[in-house]
Amino acid sequence: MSATPRPARRSAGRRAGRIVAAARDITRVYEVRRGLLREPAKLQAVGGVSFSIESGRTLAVVGESGCGKSTLARVVSLLEAPTSGTYTLAGVDAVRAASREKQALRRSVQMVFQNPYGSLNPRKKIGAILEAPLEINTALPADERAERAKAMLARVGLRPEHYVRYPHMFSGGQRQRIAIARALMLNPALVVADEPVSALDVSVQAQVLNLMADLQDELRLAYLFISHDLGVVRHIAHEVLVMYLGRGRAPVPVEPAARMCILHALPARDRALPRRAPGHARDRRPAGGLPPRRTIPRARARWRRRVRASRTAGATLRRFEMKTFRPASGFTRKAGAIVTALAIPALLAATPVAAKTLVYCSEGSPENFYPAVNTTGTSFDANSQIYSRIVDFERGATTVVPGLAERWEISPDGKVYTFHLRKGVKWHNHRDWKPTRDFNADDMIFSLERQWKESNPYFKVTSANHSYFNDMGMPKLLKSVERVNDYTVRITLEKPEAPFLSDLAMEYAGVQSKEYADAMLKAGTPEKIDQEPIGTGPFYLVRYIKDAVIRYKAFPQYWGGKAKIDDLIFSITPDASVRWAKLQKGECHVMPYPNPADLDAIRKDPNVKVLEQPGLNVGYLAYNTQKKPFDDVRVRKAVNMAINKKAIIDAVYLTTGVAAKNPIPPTQWSYNDAIKDDPYDPAAAKKLLAEAGFPNGFSTDLWAMPVQRPYNPNARRIAELMQADLEKVGIKAEIKSFEWGEYRKRMQAGEHQMGMLGWTGDNGDPDNFLNTLLGCESAKTGGSNVAKFCYPAFEELVSKAKTLPNQKQRADLYGKAQVVFKEQAPWFTIAHAVQLKPVRKEVIDFKLSPFGRHTFYGVDVKE
To answer: Are the C-beta atoms of 356 and 565 separated by less than 8 Å?
Structure first.
């Protein structure tokens, strides 16, 4: 399973690079004329600003409109000269440089502008727009300019064929990707980004920011990033320069700056919450909410606060009543949401003193709140807190236990399952809708038919691609689902299915309310049941702010008994180093997927314990067996032998992975340990390539995931190592990547030739790997079989194994299927990663899930 996007990005401990740009006491003064007599005067737009920016790092400049940010950007971009002060770019004094030298310097700094709709010439094709910097500044021939432009389009997540289209044919997010590509055409050392995401829809802002972060990591770019939005700044920056009335404080690390619970940056005399001395008159704000002027002192934000102090473990807790916040003119609801999301400590402080709160530093945002169309662990983690399933897995184990069904019977032929449902199970409340009945058989049937029957009005709501349901062959397996009475449901199968109960315990099978669905359908808003969910699970959803925070509360009427914690917060933190920093400081209690390089430091922290166990997972490189040249098994075998697996594990997994030779992990029953892995043998690989008709090799693509996953800590680095190995045998592999959701969608559609992916088991059954990932049914477009591997001998073995009740007989068949897999080589199996979970020591009874899930019912926190 895979996951998702990343806000709060940076670690203060990141290695330093060379200084790309440095300013000292930069001042920019304009001569203006004022009054009726147009008397000459001077306006200081920037005064005494100093900073430096290293390669691979981002300096954010924040402040209100009119504070001098854009003027500073023009000076840094060499579009204007400073009135005084020094400014060096790439080690050259840019202020005193000769005209020709300054012209060369300008190529090393490029800009990305705020409005992607206005920054691209609508009369020119994308290719001409991208080639223009090369045409003006280089002597490259036309074919080389075109080649570079197409390569840059691919690098920013677009297709080379977009080269011949016009700007009006693209969305705002795609246009900004094109603008970023244009800025990179001259290989600059510094990019000045002037509010590059403020004009974009909030749903694509994080995608563009993640792209910029990836490009920075890959190309060691330095960014000067201008923004009003502290949420965006926290996502991208390492340091923050706060400007006010043209002046700027010394840059500070991003985390302290982001914790300022304000929308705009405050002057040095102010703090996160402005205070007034008793009896002090309220400052007057300039009429009409005008921005600050040089002659008018800035009015402080009009905050009121009510403070209640109490002693807990020797610490003074202050409770800020957010309802008393009175925003100044121009403060929007969206901005208020960002402010709330910026400071998780503030969220904690807003909780009643007696409440127990657990913060989980999640690695990304969920796709939505409908588990049946999700495939990522990130989304399952977010959904699992809300929904219950008919049957469940024992916490920390693979044993199936009762869920919403308190008991069941299976017919002797293994085809009929009769479920007896719990009575008195309550639904969560919704702010706009209240349930009138308890959970019953109608809800179970609705949740299955929504995925099964195209005639169901909810079949296509959110998505018609019910990946798990389809990949496991459920549409053909189910014969009927009957309502016997309010609390009894009978399911009849077309044939026996050994893992059927385990399949129903998986996350995709979360049960939704039919009554709520009917009400939303009648209201014309059916999508609400997936966006504003209600369930019968241990926690109900309070608030979700994309790429920032998910907040849950314990459901007092949960059928299993109220959770031990009162509040559960997912602090969405995609950067593993930032997650570790938050765990150290106690800002979160549990973090997933640590960087292997951080493990020594994590293990030495006295306040943290590292839980670990062998992972039920596999990371792999899939060959598209329906595309040339990978439709030839000799080519697939040659690539397997050309890649040095040991070097990859040593360099990337360190001590957290073991070499994979089979498509299932060694801890999975039926694992065939007698199988020998393909050796690393470049000479033999060349020989096989020659036999297949490629004595000089060939060109191909190599897709690398843009995110860290449990089975793959750094796909980009692995791709680079593979690329180098393949080049030695004549194979030229071009590394490609896309935004995570787009990456998975394109892989499932079969657009790749070679692509990295992986899997974490969902139910403890080998069928979940062998059939779901390699079966013919899941090889269809949109399925999880991204190798598009449909081999009759393999299919016969795994299909027969599913129908047998005897585990030993099934294990024999699965063992033979693994032999066929190794002979046909649809994957290069990379590694099985050890599951590691750093947890603060005040957390009680958190259990590792063999499926890599993160559920918090049953977990407690020491007071």
So the answer is: yes
Q: Residue 90: left if φ>0, alpha if ψ -120 to 50, beta else—which one?
A: left
Nearest to 42 by CA among 30, 27, 60, 51: 30
Joined together, the tokens standing for residue 380 give 């399952």
SS3 content of the chain, % helix, strand, coil (to 5): 30, 20, 45
Q: Distance between CA 698 and CA 729 in Å, rounded?
A: 10
C-alpha 560/C-alpha 856 separation (Å) is 13
- Omega before 682 cis (within 30°)? no
Residues 236, 394: Cα–Cα separation, whole Å: 40
The dihedral sign for the CA sequence 401, 403, 407, 412: negative
**Which of 359, 279, 351 is CA-nearest to residue 320?**
351
Beta strands 190-194 and 732-736 are: unpaired
Pairing of strands 58-62, 754-760: unpaired
Amino acid of residue 797 = L
Separation of CA 737 from chain center: 14
* Helix ranges (DSSP H) in 161-252: 172-184, 202-219, 230-236
Query: Nearest Cα to 553, choosing from 426, 561, 562?
Result: 562
Taking the C-alpha atoms of residue 53 and residue 21, their distance in angstroms, rounded to an integer, is: 5
Q: What's the rounded Cα separation, in Å, for the pair 818 and 797?
A: 10
Q: 243-254 pLDDT, tens per residue?
A: 877 777 677 776
Q: In 3D, which of 479, 492, 356 has the Cα closest to residue 418?
A: 492
Query: What is the biggest distance separating any 2 CA atoms in the chain, rounded to whole angstroms?
Result: 102
Classify burial at 83, counting beta carbons within 10 Å of its beta carbon; exposed 0-12, middle 13-18, buried 19 or more. middle
Closest CA to 818 of 674, 630, 620: 674
- Average pLDDT rounded to a whole number, residues 233-257: 76
Give the amino acid at 644. Answer: N
Segment holding 189, helix H or strand E = none
Show the CA angle centred on residue 424, arms to residues 422 and 429, nearest 5°.
120
Tokens representing residue 131 in the block: 């080639």
Degrees, nearest 5: CA angle 211-214-215: 85
> Between the CA atoms of 489, 495, 498 and 500, what dihedral angle is there, to the nearest 10 degrees?
-30
Give the angle 594-596-602 at the CA atoms, nearest 5°: 60
Round to whole Å and give the CA distance between 740 and 204: 12
| 754-760/357-360 β-pairing | unpaired
Q: Name the helix (H) or strand (E) containing 837.
A: strand 827-840
Helix (H, G, I), strand (E, B) or coil at 639: helix
Run of H or E residues at 255: helix 254-258
pLDDT digits (tens, 9 = 90+) for 13-65: 344 467 888 888 889 988 877 666 667 778 888 888 888 898 888 999 988 77
CA dihedral 230, 236, 242, 247 (to 10 degrees): -130
Residue 315: band (very low, low, confident or very high) from pLDDT cuts 50, 70, 90? very low
Q: Find the DSSP H helices in 490-562.
A: 500-504, 514-522, 528-531
CB atoms within 10 A of CB 292: 20
Phi, psi of 786 (to 5 degrees): -80, -10
Give the pair of three-digit tokens for residue 71.
């003027």
Arithmetic mean of pLDDT, 623-641 = 97
Contact status, residue 256 vs residue 76, Cβ threshold 8 Å: no
CA distance 450 to 481: 12
Going from the C-alpha of 526 to that of each of 281, 387, 462, 465, 530, the distances in angstroms are 52, 18, 9, 17, 8
Computed over its alpha carbons, how large is the radius of gyration of the chain? Answer: 29
Query: In whole angstroms, how far apart are CA 616 and each of 311, 658, 764?
Result: 45, 12, 8
Closest CA to 362 of 127, 552, 102, 597: 552
Give 514's contacts (C-beta < 8 A, 6+ positions apart). Answer: 442, 443, 445, 446
Among 146-150, 285-289, 656-660, 822-826, the range with the most confident prediction by mean pLDDT is 822-826
